[in-house]
């Protein structure tokens, strides 16, 4: 009797430094699902590598793990910046003619964008970026801006540059046409976007079905929240069942 391979749930964090949020997911996604955190260069065990700041560099780093021959369905999940990264990967797989995910799940949408005061974060000086972040509330009140600048600004800049380049890439027409991937949009009850707004936004990115689910709790997209991995685990098991039902018999 063959052992069924688990559905692999590839998880993109809300920021390059946020991959630790998935540390406890294996216990919550449930049977038959394997969470696979996507660790980008510049963080954790890859801390000595240069950070990724472009759409092309992201795909060059991530896509090889999806081009290997794998059996069974898999899914993508991303929150914030990770939602845009996961969508970029799904589109690249479509353009390459490779098997795409059973579904794309996104949370904390939209991803972080450069402050409106900065037309292009890639050309902003450190002083301009710090000033804009201070006005937007990203710099803690009464903090030592010198320490913040040295410790945090390179990380924030890399994430903002990547977000901006992913948005630029998303706005360019794809030779493969629009996505047909089903999208599961996860919102928090106290988040800035309603379920209707979130669904409307994602209908612009895919011709596939869009479903919206609300995840309760103050830690909906952070470490310690259990409802989100449980929801995604159920979605993965449903995806496996639908694939099995669609397979020809004999």
Protein topology:
Elements: E1 7-12, E2 33-37, H1 55-62, H2 64-67, E3 74-79, H3 81-95, E4 104-107, H4 126-135, H5 145-170, E5 183-187, H6 195-202, E6 210-214, H7 227-246
Parallel strand pairs: 1-2, 1-3, 3-4, 4-5, 5-6
Helix pairs in contact: 1-3, 3-5
Account of the protein in words:
By secondary structure, the protein is an alpha/beta fold. It contains 7 helices and 6 strands, in the order E-E-H-H-E-H-E-H-H-E-H-E-H. Helix 3 links the parallel strand 3 and strand 4 (104-107). Helix 1 (55-62) crosses helix 3 and helix 3 packs parallel to helix 5. The radius of gyration is 19 Å and the shape is globular. The model has no long low-confidence stretch (mean pLDDT 82).
Helix content bin: 25-40%
State the end-to-end distance: 17 Å
**What's the shape?**
globular
Count the beta strands.
6
Order of helices and strands: EEHHEHEHHEHEH
Number of helices: 7
For the biggest sheet, the summary is: 6 strands, parallel
Roughly what fraction of the amino acids lie in strands? Answer: 5-15%
Major β-sheet strand ordering: 2-1-3-4-5-6
Rg over C-alpha atoms, rounded to the nearest angstrom:
19 Å
What is the structural class? alpha/beta
Short description:
The protein has helices at residues 55-62, 64-67, 81-95, 126-135, 145-170, 195-202, 227-246; strands at 7-12, 33-37, 74-79, 104-107, 183-187, 210-214. By secondary structure, the protein is α/β, with parallel strands linked by helices.
């Amino acid at each position: 009797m063959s052992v069924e391979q688990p559905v692999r749930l590839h998880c993109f964090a809300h920021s390059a430094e946020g991959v630790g949020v998935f540390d406890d997911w294996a216990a919550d996604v449930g049977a038959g699902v394997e969470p696979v955190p996507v660790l980008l260069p510049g963080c954790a065990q890859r801390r000595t590598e240069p950070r990724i700041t472009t759409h092309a560099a992201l795909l060059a780093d991530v896509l090889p793990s999806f081009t290997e021959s794998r059996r069974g369905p898999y899914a993508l999940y991303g929150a914030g910046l990770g939602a845009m990264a996961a969508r970029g990967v799904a589109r690249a797989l479509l353009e390459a003619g490779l098997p795409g995910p059973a579904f794309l799940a996104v949370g904390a949408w939209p991803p972080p964008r450069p402050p409106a005061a900065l037309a292009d974060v890639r050309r902003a000086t450190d002083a301009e970026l710090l000033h804009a972040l201070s006005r937007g509330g990203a710099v803690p009140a009464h903090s030592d801006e010198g320490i913040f600048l040295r410790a945090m600004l390179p990380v924030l800049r890399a994430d903002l540059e990547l977000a901006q380049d992913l948005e630029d890439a998303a706005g360019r027409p794809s030779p493969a046409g629009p996505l047909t991937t089903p999208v599961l949009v996860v919102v928090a009850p106290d988040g800035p976007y309603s379920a209707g707004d979130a669904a409307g936004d994602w209908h612009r990115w895919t011709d596939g079905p869009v479903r919206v689910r609300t995840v309760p709790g103050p830690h909906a997209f952070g470490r310690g929240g259990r409802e989100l991995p449980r929801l995604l685990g159920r979605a993965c098991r449903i995806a496996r069942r639908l694939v099995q039902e669609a397979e020809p018999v004999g």
